[in-house]
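Hi support team,

I submitted a single chain yesterday and got back a structure, but I'm not sure I'm reading the token output correctly. Could someone confirm the output below corresponds to the sequence I sent? I've pasted both exactly as they appear in my results page.

Thanks,
R.
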Amino acid sequence: MRIIFRVLPWLILLVAGYFFISKKFSINTSVESKHQLLVEKIEAMGKLELVRYQISDVIEHKNKTDFLPEASVLLIVKAEAVGCIDLTKITREDIKVEADTVVVNLPQPEICYVKIDHESSRVYDTKMAYFREAKLVDEAYKAAEQKISSEVKKSDILAQTKTNASSVLKPIIEGLGYKNVRLTFD
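Hi R., thanks for writing in. Yes, this is the structure output for that exact sequence:
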């Protein structure tokens, strides 16, 4: 019991000293970023986005080398593809009006973009990647983007864009007072 009474004050003093020193001499870190933002180009846009596909892809990407074990990564990739019509391509000759009928010749639909949503995509698993993990994941994302782009081109996104163009643009033109509206595509 005597030992406890002799050690206890020193122990309390030691703990109080530690807290005092850690508060007084603590390392404060702050983050500072300086930006020099420059607008390089301003471009007029005239693309009417008419359909958006949300796509999921599960990809297993492997990297085989002669000297190292086979490295692989498993990704769950979320992406979106958008079909649109470029309204800047419409000229006066593309619009024909006769009484209460209007015929509008629209440009062919196109795929505006295919992009990966990195916020929603996940690296599910890596095996034997070690120091090559970042490169392997980057290669896998690029392979996923190429595959998704090629599959979107094979899909019916352009036909869906045409259908949506009719359902979106016809009511607008009819609202201008035309009873018969016909949309054609180059």
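A quick pointer for reading it: The helical segments are 2-24, 133-154, 157-174. Let us know if anything else looks off.

Best,
Support desk
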